[in-house]
Amino acid sequence: MRLGLKLFLGFFLIVGLAAFFVMRVFVEEVKPGVRQAMESTLVDAANVLAELAAPELKAGTLARGGFTSSLARAQRRDPKAMVWRFPKRALDYRVTITDAKGIVLYDSLGRDVGRDNSRWNDVHRTLRGEYGARSSPEVPGDATHTVMHVAAPVYDPADGRTLIGVLSLSQPNRSIDPFITASQRQIMLRGAWLIGLSALIGILMTAWLMTGVRRLNRYAQAVSAGEPVAPPKPRRDEIGDLGRALETMRRKLEGKAYVEQYVQSLTHEMKSPLAAIRGAAELLQEPMPAEDRERFARSIVDQQQRLTQTIDKLLALAEVEQHGWLQSRDTLSVATLFAAVKQGAQLRAQAAGVQVQVQPAGSMTLQGDGYLLRQALGNLLDNAIDFSPAGSSIQLIAAVQAGGIALQVVDQGTGIPEFARGRVFERFYSLARPATGARSSGLGLPFVGEVARLHGGHASVEGGASGGTRAVLWLPR
Questions:
Q1: I want to staple 125 with a disulfide (CB 3.0 to 4.6 A). Which of 22, 130, 254, 466 is the partner?
Q2: Which UniProt keywords apply (predicted)?
């Protein structure tokens, strides 16, 4: 299982389960909460009605008095009320009054007159001076529909202490069931929204965290593969700290290995010129003809120039290779780029008797570092001049190729021997120049390859269609 999915599931399980259990608590508390509120209301109403019924109960005129008449008229009323989207068209109260022995003297529904209710919990506890209430089935044997009964003592109006009866006020629980169901439905709906919002927050949090982790992973993979890659974008958290630490570690490790490699390479390449200089210097200390002395002195100068060129090229290559990514990127005109490269090599081309021709590139543009691209194309053009016979021409050509732009330097020289084609981009590998037999530093083409790498492209050298050599620097558009 991937890390992002684990993070999301962990976050969702914690928040989602917490929301689910809290929602269940709310749902389970709705019914008892509403019924407790209903019981409290019944207590108030029962005690008010008990006070109103006390005079007639003492006088024995309850059956024909004004209290029962008023209750009968009230039960015939249509409240025409709309309580929280639910219509209420009748009163749900039922009033039962018993004497001091628990015998029913009055029933607003006219059902239980004369019945002994003293065994019922509401009447029984009230007769004992306690708070009496009960919940019983609305229809005997049907436990799904119940009725809440609350009793209030009826005291003698004369002293307010003598118990003369009990008034029981009841209301079916089904009258409040729609409100309970609606409340539970609202809680379930809001809970579903809460869980959905938790899932969305979990997705966003996971995506935010995994974006940084994926960038670090891509960066580490690219560094391991030796690909050019910019350091991760700065962040003000632990992931940002880790990215900066990885970049610092990469620079230190690469710098150490780089220095070791270049010291070895430079030492190896300096041995031959230094040995030649030493040999010539030792011979110059001995008597010899002027012609030989001049030849050995010229050899020292040539070897010194070779050493200088090698060091300069090596420093330029080191600067490019140390860049893990392209430092600057501008929109460049190919025509302007070719013109600058041609102008820079014009004197060498004239001295070699070679003509440099630029094929029109129109309005073709590319993205890259202008300085590095000019240097790379200059190296390719220098090689082409060195290997081209006098009187020949060199073409600078730009063409759209494989979704990118191929910058080509095509000469009419001797071409590349078969044995050397796989090694021309190796550091310090060089072929003898046809005109002089001298070799270059062998660092020009590796420089071109590094510039191509920084731009996300590649470089190649191949035989031309009609002889000669075609050097290609391919860059993505």
A1: 130
A2: Cell membrane, Kinase, Membrane, Phosphoprotein, Transferase, Transmembrane, Transmembrane helix, Two-component regulatory system
